[in-house]
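Morning F.,

Quick status update on the modeling queue. The single chain you submitted on Monday has been processed. Sequence for confirmation:
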Amino acid sequence: MTSSPNSWLSDIRLGARSLAEFGQGLFQPTVRLGITGLSRAGKTVFITALVHGLIRGGRFPVFEAMAGGRIARVRLAPQPDDAVPRFQYENHIRDLLEKRIWPDSTRQISELRLLVDYQSRSGAQRTLTLDIVDYPGEWLLDLPLLTMTYEAWAADSLARSQGKPRDALARDWHAHLAKLSPMAPAREAEAIEAARLFTSYLRACRDETVAMSMLPPGRFLMPGDLDGSPALTFAPLRVPKTGEAPDGSLWAMMQHRYEAYKTLIVRPFFEDHFLRLDRQVVLVDALAAINAGPDALRDLQSAIGNILDCFQTGRRTLWSAMLRPRADRILFAATKADHVHQRQHETMETILRRMTERAAERAKFSGALVDAVALASVRATREANVRSDGGSMPAIVGVPMGGDDDAEIAAFAGDVPDNIEALFETGATAVTPIKFMRFRPPLLESVDGVPALPHIRLDRALQFLIGDKLQ
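Structure tokens below.
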């Protein structure tokens, strides 16, 4: 993906900035870690638990620098970008520890800077600057629009909406669309109604019962201050494959607003934030997709492929910095592993790897590392064997949300299906749903006298993401 095929000035500016940042990194090593998540994947909890674990310490046997005692101190520092909101770590950790509620999800970009003082393997005292960049996953799925015309995007969106289970959810939008003539004079009321119905369709697709992932444009689902603006008031039309939009037509209006969306919303994020990322975490609610059925799994696989295609993958070198920055490590994480028994975790990872394998091969060919892991940023359950009908069955135990006390209950969520290839076959039947129960955040555990949040494989994620920078 190029930022602007016809803009040499933009390319020169981006290349100069990248080279300057690369040079600074030679004297003050810095990792810009992008963290995003598709719908309901637990991004805020992941960042909060990661920061708390680094600052306060925890049980991280796989994270070598911490397990080996080479991390002396981790502290918060003022963030580098004055125009970007700060990630509200203090508020979120208070929700988890004191109120024992899950923090609200963030719906905008934010940053947090950590300084990691550590001892290298050679004994030298060093500091790594870790800049965490938090942004919604829907923004990431907008990046392919930069290389798509309005006509191509409209055709792709319409094609997706005609397959199951989307077709039933798009019925009202399709009915309105049938009444519109792209060649007719542009009328604001028609554009507003088309955008409203199209947005309602996208929201319905995100419901956990269908759990679709490919839902651009992302700002339609989180408009913020742009709600009601022309840049968010467009929708796909059935337009000819060839020819040009007549001046003053509804087609021309939609085309213009689509291009404005790219110029005003997508491109600034791409150039000012996304291109500067060194490494990336993409959190995925794989269990929700499994529950929703094969259509949701294939849609998630398509979204993951598009995400990997967005990255300028490859090892970060002086030469690549001069041309264009690249993300050299990308981690896909299936969250909420504490919702099922540990014997199901390997299957969760296998399903995630199955969804990433083709796109990951392209990334590896260019020198990037891609990994997949099943984790729980904050583990809200523990495992137990429950006696039933003269035998025992594996279960998870925790405190349910909404209860008046800390009384635990045991629950058997169900099994993640192990016939993985069959899940992705066209015409595959839905699996028996996994019965999720929402549990309260846990009480802190004590690790060497220090209160720590329990987790599942958060240390493995940290080792992959920054372990090599702490050697």
